[in-house]
Amino acid sequence: MVTLGLTVFCLSPMIEITPFFSVLPVIGPALLLKELLSSQGTAETLLYAIPVLVTSVIYSMLALWWAIELFSREDVLFRESERFEVGLWLRHLLREKEATPSFTEGVVCLVMIFFLQFGSYKFLGTVDTNSPLQALKLQMMYLVVTVACPALFMAVMLTKSVRQTLRLRWPSFKMLGLAILLPVALHPLSLELLASLDWFFPKLPSEVIEKLASMTDNQLPLWLVLLVFAVTPAVCEEVAFRGFIMSGFSQSHRKWLPIMLSALAFGLVHMIPQQVFNATLIGLVLGLIVYHSRSLVPAILFHLIYNCLPILRGRIDAKWIKRIEDTPAEWFFAVDGGAIRYEWPTLLIAAVVAVALLRWLLAQPVGEASAAAANAELAIDADVNVKTSVRA
Questions:
Q1: Contact call for residues 381 and 217 (beta carbons, < 8 A)
Q2: pLDDT (tens digit, 9 = 90+) per residue, 101-132?
Q3: Residue 198 — φ and ψ, nearest 5°?
Q4: In whole angstroms, what is the distance from residue 235 CA to residue 261 CA?
Q5: Cα–Cα distance between 47 and 202 in angstroms, integer?
Q6: CA 260 to CA 284: how far, in whole Å?
Q7: Do residues 118 and 208 make contact, with C-beta atoms less than 8 angstroms apart?
């Protein structure tokens, strides 16, 4: 049983940018040991031993917990033998749908996303992307097909209420205001945090550098860049990770477990170590927003604004940036390599605002109106099931 759990969690792949940065419970330590033997234990190699071993232990513990949780359920221990037949099991899933996905279905959706992303790399490698416009269109299609489509397909096929599964409810105006202000406060903090850890992470691949350069290329239409790198990821990734996957993980009836698991999955899908680190932290914030608002709308808005800020920051003309020198603005901003950086007063203000907003968010109970709407949807689904069974 434990082997089954380990197998599922081992299916969360990640591109090996360096031999050290592996998150797989078995392959990570194996590659680390190989590098230690080949490099004779250099300081640079030993530096990556801690993240490799820690992530391997975390994945093994999660796999063990999931296996115990799954096989301690009565419907698994005492299920009928016909459910072991794939065809009958699929019919059971399609006929006896639940209102929201199960924990297992959330894991399956995550595995499908990983497999689709890795399967698409071979296809993308054969496509001629010399044209920047074609590359942007391909990037948008890639997100829609590999991230949004699996979640939407499984929500439609395996659940009764797509609206409840994806949390398609209108939130309170306070939550919308939080979704607007919080990314503005977190952006400079995350940017400077990654800059301070530049010595720790490996160098970015050339393909990623080219993609980042296209975000700030003034020759490309701004609306198209925002559509590809801000709007599409915000919608697709939130529908998948805070929509279907987090709904499945929420079947554990715990607060932090679905938030942490969906954030970890959201980080791993970015694959680049720098992006994995940053996306995991942002994923925790997004999970909290969705949990307390019971709506996907604030998360999409937060994600959209957070992605727009680096694009707009990179589009600022270097001539205008130089004008902040010898002005009070230089106390808050700096110029480094033609790009804006943030000084400590700006970071201090951003940290105070971010902490205040997060404390307010954590203090918010789950909205009664949203909970009532969810119960109403369950009642409607139950009524439909009763009428169907009576007719049968």
A1: no
A2: 988 889 989 999 998 888 887 676 666 666 77
A3: -60, -30
A4: 19
A5: 12
A6: 6
A7: no
Non-local CB neighbours of 341 within 8 Å, separated by 6+ positions:
191, 192, 195, 333, 334, 335
Q: Which two tokens stand for residue 288?
A: 């909290």
Q: What are the contacts of 39-48 at 24+ separation with CB within 8 A?
A: 45/20, 47/200, 48/18, 48/20, 48/21
User: For strand 339-342 and strand 333-336, is the pairing parallel, antiparallel, or unpaired?
Assistant: antiparallel
Sign of CA dihedral 249, 250, 253, 255: positive
Q: Mark 179-196 as b/e (b = at least 16 C-beta within 10 Å).
A: bebbbebbbbbbbbeeee
As a residue count, the chain comes to 392
For 223, the enclosing helix (H) or strand (E) is helix 222-226
Q: How many whole angstroms separate alpha carbon 113 and alpha carbon 153? A: 12
Each residue's pLDDT tens digit, 236-290? 999 999 999 999 999 877 889 899 999 999 998 888 888 999 999 999 999 999 9
Tell me how crowded residue 362 is: count the other CB atoms within 10 A of its CB.
10
- The dihedral sign for the CA sequence 149, 286, 380, 253: positive
CA 317 to chain centre: 31
Beta carbons within 8 Å of 275's beta carbon, 6+ residues apart: 267
Tell me the angle at which helices 173-196 and 273-293 cross, rounded to the nearest 10 degrees: 160
pTM of the model: 0.76
Q: Take residue 110 and report the two structure tokens written for it.
A: 């995550």
CA angle 177, 183, 189 (to 5 degrees): 140
Q: Is the separation of the CB atoms in 64 and 70 below 8 Å?
A: no
Judge contact between 20 and 44, C-beta under 8 A.
no
Q: Are 272 and 209 in contact (CB under 8 A)?
A: no
Handedness of CA 162, 165, 171, 176 (dihedral sign): negative
Residue 374, both tokens: 């969810």
Strands (E), the chain: 333-336, 339-342
